[in-house]
Design goal:
The protein is α/β, with parallel strands linked by helices. The protein folds into two domains: 210 residues, Rossmann fold, CATH 3.40.50.300; 79 residues, Alpha-Beta Plaits (2-Layer Sandwich), CATH 3.30.70. 32% of the residues lie in helices and 28% in strands. A hairpin with a 2-residue loop joins strand 12 and strand 13. Helix 3 packs across helix 4. The longest helix is centred in the middle third of the chain and has 16 residues. The protein is globular, with a radius of gyration of 23 Å. It binds adenosine-5'-triphosphate. Keywords: ATP-binding, Nucleotide-binding. This is ABC transporter domain-containing protein. InterPro entries: AAA+_ATPase, ABC_transporter-like_ATP-bd, ABC_transporter-like_CS, P-loop_NTPase.
Length: 308
């Protein structure tokens, strides 16, 4: 049975539709990414799943319970890490965990120590939360979210504002929880994080554009990816890239061209060859460039789906 089953889920605020007829299922043991820009409806979806707000239309079934009428049962079995980590600054890490264990009615006295060890928090257990870095707070918030042994974990942009090393370490923790059988829905606007998920839902303006494995999503691209580099000293001049972008923008068969640091990233129809792209530059009297074939990344798929 699906852990989350959502059908036509919709939420309007006045005339504005924040979540627009979304339907999806999440099977047990998966880590599903919910990828979308700010304001695309990620938090609103999660709040409906937890029964914190009511859908305007449609329904959500979470762990076999109806989100509108059985939200207490959903929350008792679900861990939720919201964007604002609700930690007490003037308590230590251990005291925070102990407090939340009490709130959730966790009677096992070992649970706090067990979590401190499992999440590598023992080293900061006696430190006041206000002295902790964003990475440690995030990890402690995860411990709080799983203190009551939830079957499902909803993580709302858990890695926002956290440095890349702590983000990577956080994902290792997520995998260890999935290995224990927890199902995870994690929202993010980091494209690279979506690659870590078993399946990824792509959300824009409240609409779910696709939900599939990262590889299947990339296969949706209506063409092939290329990269164009400036050779020699010219690669130090970012403004030299703009004319190249202009040329590609006007080239038949080029679906999308964008700047990517020191080079261009091109999506072109499958029939277009490297030679054809090179010839286009030569025809415009642009030399010293290198065209290389590239593999798609999640951002390519995202841009492609959103522009459709
Ligand atoms: N209570 C509310 N009243 C009015 N509008 C709201 C309310 N809650 C959310 N919205 C609007 O709904 C849209 C979706 O918001 P939501 O928080 O779900 O987006 P998000 O994808 O989680 O973005 P973010 O990453 O910024 O949190 C936004 O335009 C937001 O302003």
């Amino acid at each position: 049975m699906a852990v989350i089953s959502v059908h036509n889920l919709t939420r309007r605020f006045g005339n504005f539709t924040a979540v627009d007829h979304i339907s999806f299922d999440i099977e047990p043991g998966q880590v599903v990414g919910y990828l979308g820009p700010n304001g695309s409806g990620k938090t609103t979806t999660i709040r409906m799943l937890l029964g914190l707000i009511r859908p305007s239309e449609g329904e959500a079934n979470v762990l076999g319970f109806d989100s509108a009428s059985q939200s207490d049962l959903i929350r008792a079995n679900t861990g939720y890490m919201s964007q604002k980590f609700a930690l007490y600054n003037d308590l230590t890490a251990r005291e925070n965990l102990k407090f939340y264990a009490g709130v959730y009615g966790v009677r096992n006295g070992q649970r706090v120590d067990e979590l401190l060890e499992q999440l590598g928090l023992d080293v900061i257990a006696t430190m006041l939360v206000r002295t902790l870095s964003a990475g440690w707070r995030q990890r402690l918030s995860l411990a709080v979210a799983i203190v009551h042994h939830p079957k499902l974990l909803l993580l709302d942009e858990p890695t926002s504002g956290v440095d890349p090393t702590a983000r990577r370490a956080f994902w290792d923790l997520i995998y260890s929880l999935v290995a224990e059988g927890i199902t995870i829905l994690v929202t993010t606007h980091y494209m690279d994080e979506a690659e870590y998920c078993s399946r990824v839902g792509i959300l824009n303006f409240g609409k779910l554009l696709a939900l599939d494995t990262p590889n299947n999503l990339k296969a949706l691209l209506p063409g092939k990816m290329w990269e164009v580099f400036l050779e020699g000293k010219e690669n130090e001049q970012a403004d030299r890239l703009l004319p190249l972008l202009d040329v590609m923008g006007k080239t038949e068969g080029v679906i999308r061209a964008s700047l990517a640091g020191d080079h261009l990233r091109i999506l072109a129809k499958n029939a277009i060859t490297r030679k054809e792209l090179e010839c286009r530059f030569k025809a415009e009297d642009i030399h010293n460039i290198r065209v290389e074939s590239s593999i798609p990344v999640m951002e390519d798929t995202f841009m492609s789906l959103v522009s459709q």
